[in-house]
From TrEMBL:
<dbReference type="Pfam" id="PF04389">
    <property type="entry name" value="Peptidase_M28"/>
</dbReference>
<dbReference type="InterPro" id="IPR007484">
    <property type="entry name" value="Peptidase_M28"/>
</dbReference>
<feature type="domain" description="Peptidase M28">
    <location>
        <begin position="109"/>
        <end position="321"/>
    </location>
</feature>
<dbReference type="InterPro" id="IPR018247">
    <property type="entry name" value="EF_Hand_1_Ca_BS"/>
</dbReference>
<dbReference type="InterPro" id="IPR045175">
    <property type="entry name" value="M28_fam"/>
</dbReference>
<protein>
    <submittedName>
        <fullName>M28 family metallopeptidase</fullName>
    </submittedName>
</protein>
């Protein structure tokens, strides 16, 4: 009789735990949609019209416009109450001029951070570059609305969504680092400084990097089928990451995930040309989100009025959902 009682107790405990886990999973599935809805086209547009305005003078690395850009990013995090992992009130990872070549002045990455509730030492990094190419020889400003103003404001909205979740008691299990890197346009220097010189949060604890570089426009290939985004790198280091990405998209969005530029023989070599690569070379799984190039790429005509804000909203929500899934899984994704 005693053995039977013990067996019954164990069985009920297992069922209870399973039921509790299922309820938790369902609850997470419901709440993530609510927080994703806080990411809106209107807020993305409002931020981008500031960030890609003439006042920022094309955000060239080390120049006054780039300094205004980092202050804009910092002030956003301060205003919504998201701290820095560097020190209280210090959001800038300083990069000295000596790190650059060609007389580039000192610059800085901007870091903000939400600490995980259960696995705080494990980190999901969401990145985008904050710089652009500055002013042309004929004194025209390259505003860089798509490149990479779109990625920058996307991270700000994603950060707000995670903060809203945390404030409501739905903080993610793992920590989230919002990483805005400088000097991408002159050779991925900002992200390389973070990974190779001063990884503020240890690379060994970095689960994945989701990198956003141009997600506000449509390229010529997709003019008649705009519900897409290019994904690069998702299966290079972790098939599990790729499968999670696919499953999240299928469950919530059903966008076309275009892997054209993910081909190892892609002549554009985009896999090596944005900031995710400095994480990938350190064996950290990555996804690079990209809308492809267009006629305004690296030209003064890359302006905020040409951004398709409804599409920017959808892509930003996709990235948020993917980050949420990675941050709340019981086990960190495996590197193949």
């Amino acid at each position: 009789m005693k053995k039977l009682t013990i067996l019954l107790y164990i069985t009920l405990s297992v069922v209870s735990c399973s039921s509790s886990q299922n309820k938790k999973t369902t609850k997470n599935a419901n709440v993530v949609k609510d927080y994703a809805k806080t990411i809106t086209a209107d807020e993305l547009k409002e931020a981008l019209y500031i960030y890609a305005s003439d006042e920022y003078e094309g955000r060239e690395t080390g120049e006054p416009g780039q300094k205004k850009a980092v202050e804009f990013i910092k002030n956003h995090y301060v205003s919504v109450g998201i701290p820095s992992p560097i020190a209280e009130g210090d959001y800038f990872q300083e990069i000295p001029a000596s790190y650059f070549s060609n007389n580039i002045k000192d610059s800085e990455n901007v870091l903000a951070y939400i600490k995980g509730t259960e696995k705080p030492d494990e980190v999901i990094v969401i990145s985008a570059h904050l710089d652009h190419i500055g002013i042309s020889r004929n004194d025209e400003i390259n505003n860089g609305a798509d490149d990479d103003g779109s990625g920058t404001v996307a991270i700000l909205e994603i950060a707000e969504a995670f903060k809203a979740a945390s404030d409501k008691g739905h903080g993610s299990m793992r920590s989230i680092l919002f990483l805005h890197v400088t000097a991408e346009e002159i050779g991925l220097h900002g992200s390389r400084y973070y990974t190779d010189v001063d990884p503020v949060l240890p690379l060994a604890n970095t689960v994945a990097n989701l990198n956003i570089d141009m997600i506000g426009r449509v390229d010529p290939k997709h003019e008649n089928d705009r519900n897409y985004v290019y994904l690069i790198g998702s299966d290079k280091l972790s098939k599990e990451l790729h499968n999670i990405s696919e499953a999240v998209n299928k469950k919530y969005f059903n966008m076309k995930l275009d892997y054209t530029f993910n081909d190892d023989d892609d002549p554009n070599r985009f896999y090596y040309r944005s900031d995710h690569y400095n994480f990938a070379k350190n064996n950290i799984p990555v996804i690079f989100y990209f809308n492809g190039t267009h006629a305004d790429y690296h030209k003064p005509s890359d302006t905020p009025d040409k951004i398709q804000y409804d599409l920017l909203e959808t892509r930003t929500r996709l990235i948020f959902h993917t980050a949420w899934e990675l941050a709340n899984r019981s086990e960190r994704i495996k590197v193949d």
